[in-house]
């Protein structure tokens, strides 16, 4: 015989274990807030854009096939920007205390679809350092790409600029708190149903009805503790109390 759980049963379990669910959710939110605001180091991002195109003579017209070929080279340029040929010179110029693979992990290169504009983004714990690295990468690329790819028309469209109050991109505190809230709710609800499933004790008359499948016709009310502490009635004690009262009257 398969046991089915109705929506009413689910709501009953949630209501019964509401304190557990709410407690775990609050704990998750507190932990996420503390980690996001006080433990994790903020990471800043700076970006620069460059345009790469082959220089044409005055008599040579730009054909659509040539533009398409330039677009296909964008992926190659993206790889060159993150290669040791460029990054080694960037590390040398800025005297960075990191290796080429470490610097490469901080850099992301992208381009808008059907565009020859390349965007270089650098993430670093210090905003001014991210700006310097982004601009230096663009400068070194502009110097080296004519030799590497015979592309002698590289233009820096928008260099990264220093801001007085930059906003960090990592961590995203609100996102972390929202994720922690969902995790806390899921864990709380899961533990609530697990405890309900493992708890086989009978506590209420409803548990008896569900277990036996028959209605309850009577309930034995609990006896108050003060009633239990009373001494039982005794004729001899009552007789002695009456005798004592008569002696006082005489």
From TrEMBL:
Residues 227-250 are annotated as: Disordered. The keyword Protein transport does not apply. Residues 144-196 form the Tyrosine-protein kinase G-rich domain. Residues 3-93 form the Polysaccharide chain length determinant N-terminal domain. It is found in: Cell membrane. One of its GO terms (cellular component) is plasma membrane. Keywords: Cell membrane, Membrane, Transmembrane, Transmembrane helix. It is a multi-pass membrane protein. One of its GO terms (molecular function) is protein tyrosine kinase activity. It holds the Pfam family GNVR. Signal peptide: none annotated. The chain crosses the membrane at residues 18-40, 174-194. Belongs to the CpsC/CapA family. This is Capsular biosynthesis protein. It comes from Lysinibacillus halotolerans. The lineage of its organism: Bacteria, Bacillati, Bacillota, Bacilli, Bacillales.
